[in-house]
Amino acid sequence: MTTPLTTAPLEEKASKLDGRNRTSSSKNYALKYVAAAISNMAASGVSNPLDIIKVRQQLRTQTPGSRANAFWSVGVEMARVEGVRSLLNGFSASMLREVVYSGLRLGSYEFFKDTFHDMSKGALSRDGLALKVSAAAVAATVGSALANPADLVKVRMQAHYPLGSPYRNMRHAFASIWQEGARAATSTAPSAAVAGGLRALYRGVDATTVRGIILSVSQICSYDQVKQILKQRGIMEEGIGLHLTASMFAGLFCSITSNPVDVVKVRLMNDKAREFDGVVDCIKTIMRREGPGAFFKGFSMCWARLGTHTIVTFLIFERVRLLLGLEAM
């Protein structure tokens, strides 16, 4: 007895195929997040000492060009006074920040590229800068906002304290900053204390988000664009050489664009005395006291740190993608 052949309706087949495609795409996006988190954690581990020196430079208020603020002076002074281990201050908070911030801003970049391309019905070209900038900006906004508490704790743990750091570890730093905000609350109601604690952990979030957008747009988009141009013109093929070249350009470009915002962000995050009334007031105060050159304090360390971070990030990111069975970015 033969079993009659049945043909599923076309709509049912299309639905099943579409479901499998969505599942596959979701898995790929999750793997890209994992690759982004791993690569940025590795890069942050390498560049953490440079990041600390950069933060120390940006917190100093000497006139621009002062030799006492040179990166080698700051580094030598830290090693002599606080010990070599001081160059690893804030390491745990830095790792947490990379998982949230960098994992999202780099790991979700292609998700937003695909989403915006589909939403525009092809009006936004995949090779165009408009799509890349939009995707990087949204990814950075989400990542920066969520990671602000970890970023703030990292800055506090990396700052210099003449009498010794008030923070025993990352968890103690989170608790101390929360309590600092709760005590500053004008009301004794529990909800006011919670709101005060959250405000303390999210201090500087506006500057953090602006910096995240500027850095991500300049870093990710320039890497993507340089890769695209070099491949389209037949100058280089996909591989380590191309990844290294594109990441070097991206590191320089994002260092130039993000350093001024980074100075403001660091000053706000370390402002425990509430000297600045927001971003605009901080900018005005720096301009009045130190001049426009102050916005590029720590640039050498910013470039050394961001350049190193960018190169290591993209080299590992592309390699991990390959190991996970994903195509190159």
UniProtKB/TrEMBL annotation:
Enumerate composition-biased segments (Basic and acidic residues).
10-21
Keyword set includes Phosphoprotein: no
Q: How does it sit in the membrane?
A: Multi-pass membrane protein
Localized where? Membrane
Judging by the UniProt lineage, the source's domain of life is: Eukaryota
Keyword Amino-acid biosynthesis among UniProt keywords: no
PANTHER family found in the cross-reference section: MITOCHONDRIAL DICARBOXYLATE CARRIER-RELATED
Q: Mind telling me what this protein is named?
A: Mitochondrial carrier
Organism listed in the record: Obba rivulosa
